[in-house]
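Table 4 source record.
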Amino acid sequence: MTRTRKSAGRITFVGAGPGDPGLLTRRAWDALTDADHIVYDRSVPDALLSVIKAAVEPEAEGVHAPEFSPAEGVPGDVAKVLLSAARSGLRAVHLVIGDPFGHEAVVKEVQSVARTAVPFEVVPGVGQASGVATYAGVPLGTARTTVDVDDVATVDFEALAAAVHRGGFAMAVEAGDLGQVRDGLLAAGVDGGSPISVTGDGTGETQYTTSSSVDSFVEAALGFSGRVVLTLGAGVKERDKLGWWENRPLYGWKVLVPRTKEQAGVMSAKLRTYGAIPCEVPTIAVEPPRTPAQMERAIKGLVDGRYAWVVFTSVNAVRAVWEKFGEHGLDARHFGGVKIACIGEATADAVRAFGIQPELIPADEQSSEGLLAEFAPFDEVLDPVGRVLLPRADIATETLAAGLTERGWEVDDVTAYRTVRAAPPPADIRDAIKSGGFDAVLFTSSSTVRNLVGIAGKPHARTVVAVIGPKTSDTATEFGLRVDVQPDHAAVPDLVEALAQYAVELREKLAAMPAKQRRGSKVQGPTALRFR
């Protein structure tokens, strides 16, 4: 990732959009990942900055990474800093919320740069007002008016009052200025009973929208801070039907993900699509076997044609074998003639990533039993080689090895990696686990159950417990946990989808209850606690 510094610098003004990292344009992303110096406004959300920094700051020491500076900490005006960097041959970026030309101060910066010979570019972003209105489910119509306000004193409230008659408007403004906005709208003749909505943390994990009227929205938005978006017009009435972002099945749920750091990413990404806020807590650390001789012999046996099958039961086992291949300068070509079986789709995907298509994946139950049900017995005529390699964790159960042996196969049950208990999470995470601070926890193996309880304690009774399969369910029950969710197929996507479906059913069950009964409901789950 070492970069060749260009002799001529340039300046790029980048619109970050409303805050959701997924709304960054491709051009914006390219400008940020190619930058030498990034100046950002304080209104850019921390979550978005974290995503950007993770992408552009390499882990390797000595490799070039861009410098980040908050605009408030830049000496002099931002334009001078950008020009100085560009004239030094650097690629400088000013990152702003929404669209660059939605801010008067940024327009002035661009004008200052345009008066010089330094090349510059302006990358548009989704406007904060229009983007948040869409995430809140408020259609503004074709005659929409959107305003990103830096200074309320500059707002033309007469024009906004006229916009209301044309269909409505959306305005991004500081929460502390809402009183002035209300007074300005009323003074301009806007009906105090007109419907209006206010959205805080727009497009963020905790976005929240409240609907009221022009004469009461300030009180309704008490507690909101930072930038908010208010929308006024007929479209506000459509919010209950069109408010998709806040109506996702797991919206606002804090979900504990006890997996290794490498494995948690896929599950967390899936949870976020349903609106959840994942918290990754590693419970297992994967380490090489204490004595590598077994694996060394297994790798040699693979190359020499000793095995008819390799059976992978986890992504970690796949990684362990390929790491050994790499150490010996081998690649996928050396798997020629060896068939591969995988216990589930996640493991199969790890094999496919190395350019190999597995021959066997259970169609129904993705478990040791499911794989055994479809694994053909050894046949002396059809199978010239009768040995199976089973690279696994040091704590794996004997079910699969015993089942293959019963089917006539010789099994080399090899320890490919060790799983050891991870260090305890921080005190605040441990307290949240035991006190019910998490709405749900997702267990993907028996070891994640044992290790989480061991390093952090047992999850609170109000926490929804979701398990990936029957063995994990049995372990959770042994530890006194109530199992609420178990998918039909033991796979991470199915587990997350099952949790989302549980949330939908829970919400429907509560909605059907009379208000008085709902308040005293014993129904388990976070929706019962914050139903509105």
